[in-house]
Amino acid sequence: MCILFFKFDPRPVSKNAYRLILAANRDEFYHRPSKSADFWDSSNEILSGLDMEEGKEGGTWLGISKKGKWSALTNYMQPKIDKNAKGRGALVSNFMTTDLDSFSYLKKVSTEGHLYNGFNLIAADLNTTKGDVIYYYGNKGAPEPFFLNPGVYGLSNSLLDTPWKKLQYGKQLFTDVIKQSQDLAKEDLVQELIKVMNNQDPQLPDPAIEDQGKDYILPIMNKYAAVCVRCPDYGTRTNTVILIDAEGHVTFTERTMLDADINQWQTSSYQFKLQT
After folding, report:
1. pTM
2. Domains contained in the chain, CATH given
3. Is residue 204 a contact partner of residue 218, using CB atoms and an 8 Å limit?
4. Which domain of life, per UniProt (predicted)?
């Protein structure tokens, strides 16, 4: 399970404004093997964390490239999982390496959506002559991807902007922070967004989550109904913040859990400029 919030404005009026502000949590079993965010190879072209689970190596939940490709994935919460379905993490990795634009890629994915368990996928081209272009597709929603207008969005384990209480609450906290974004130093903005993503206040009751998750979600509902999930062996193990300013400078910050220990965390940051 994961949650993310983002605001984008392809052509900000002020030089101090950001084209994209994103804050995201990766929720996963603490012991599932993965690599922290880093560039994939010596070309320093694609930046992401990587899943290292046997059979699903190389998949990811969130990535960005210097060419301006950005993609993020969340699972769609469903009571029953098809263990023979295709690995969803490859959907992000494949977009990062394809020559297809975001719409064409999601259009292709939509024809194969039935081969996967439920997912939501965002794909973006952030450095085009037309300005930043972002599309969304969820295989439990509309049959084709759709274009996202500039604005603020929230995504968890249902369709985009489904009004789960924790999503609405987190989105309001996120919005309150980004309203101050032009007045905050970059480092302070990053820390304020990480603080939002570590909010553990449960937003209950929430019949929408209960209805979608059925009986299996009830035992952990009190923990799951918060922006930051904290269960004994499962929960939020990575916070990611991405800032892209008006001139295409990218700041990518990841705070990740070490050794499956909720008391040990490491923060790393990468900065680069999108290629023109």
Report:
1. 0.97
2. 2-273 (3.60.60.10)
3. no
4. Eukaryota
